[in-house]
From TrEMBL:
Entry protein name: Uncharacterized protein
Region (Disordered): 53-72
Length: 72
């Protein structure tokens, strides 16, 4: 399983890629670049059949919406 995380210190932001059994790959990146990496690896939103933070932990899942009856 691939884990992608954003790391930020006082001067620089980084993208970190973690794969089991391999050394972490950490490199400087802008917010745009990090977002694009998430898109490429399908980690930016829920996808059918893809396990990521959204599917595993429900992060970013909108709360249920209660229908409102229209007047009339």
């Amino acid at each position: 399983m691939l884990v992608i995380r954003r790391l930020v210190d006082r001067q620089q932001a980084y993208t970190a890629l973690f794969l089991p059994g391999e050394e972490p790959r950490i490199f400087p990146s802008t917010d745009y670049e990090h977002g694009r990496i998430l898109q490429i690896y399908k980690q930016d939103r829920p996808y059918t059949g893809v396990h990521n933070d959204f599917s595993e932990f429900g992060l970013g899942t909108p709360p249920p919406v209660t229908p409102v009856k229209s007047g009339g």
